[in-house]
Automatic annotation (TrEMBL), chains A, B:
Organism this protein belongs to: Ectobacillus ponti
InterPro entries (alphabetical): HotDog_dom_sf, Thioestr_dom
Pfam family, one: 4HBT
Domain of life according to the entry: Bacteria
Thioesterase domain location: 57-141
Protein's name in the database: PaaI family thioesterase
């Protein structure tokens, strides 16, 4: 079943915050991860490039970690945006999160050439600190579990 | 002080295992992380590319996670190779590890344009399972702490 993320939080980040190598729409070299709601869960779809290999035939763990990372910050932004009374596409600027910690358990080798689906469940730890528990599937196979603790971007990140 | 990793474990991986996007010498698009001994610690040096950005001026977390990941598997391979009586460059084929789990705590925004230094301490958990605790520095600033649990590559990875 083909799936699409039609309304992604990354489409709405202000231009200054849209250069992320993982999820920035303005970073020409990046992965362009896009994260949206699917019911009360969040979803990011991504098909790794042929060069994103660990051992030939299997996806590189660092790219899995990158997917979980940006899926986490994007999911947290979606959740806080909704809590603030907004939805993607209503013209309001979403909050921007950064990653405090990232954990990945690699459960099975992830086959290449298949679209990956990251599915996230979000928990508010504190108004500025959210936890996102993510499962990454290749088809029906659960390949990795991840956890991101994301915090609202601190002023130290403002260049 | 300029530093170099003169003898890296990744230089010795068999060709079939040298395609990793993070540390494979044969992957033209990859990061080419190289990991060697420095006393009883391990070191990987890496200067991120300009496109490896999170917010302009700061390094993307997924690239930090990738560095910690391959530094971890490379460090475990160095340690088991040494335990087996070998050193990089003695003509023997080193063991190859994969990542079971990866954890990263992002302590400070990592500035771009500076060479990063990952420094690892290695603990044997089991003959086939090693833990690598890593600190990533930009100059004198400790930017991230990571932990990798690496296991000797299982046969399920053989394509």
């Amino acid at each position: 079943m083909e799936q699409l993320v039609t309304k992604a939080i990354q489409d709405e980040y202000p231009d200054d915050f849209a250069w992320c190598y993982g999820c920035g729409r303005l970073n020409e070299s990046g992965h362009h991860f896009r994260t949206g709601w699917q019911g009360d869960q969040t979803v990011t779809l991504f098909t790794p490039e042929p060069e994103h290999t660990a051992i030939p035939g299997f996806v590189y763990g660092g790219v899995m970690a990158s997917l979980i990372d940006c899926h986490g910050t994007g999911s947290a932004a979606l959740a806080l945006h909704r809590k603030n009374g907004h939805e993607v596409g209503d013209g309001s600027e979403p909050p921007r999160f950064v990653t405090a910690s990232l954990h990945v358990d690699f459960l099975k080798p992830t086959p290449q050439g298949i679209e990956l689906k990251a599915v996230g469940k979000i928990t508010e730890i504190h108004p500025k600190k959210w936890q996102v528990d993510t499962e990454v599937y290749a088809g029906d196979t659960l390949c990795a579990r991840g956890q991101v603790v994301a915090v609202v971007m601190p002023s130290t990140f403002k260049a």
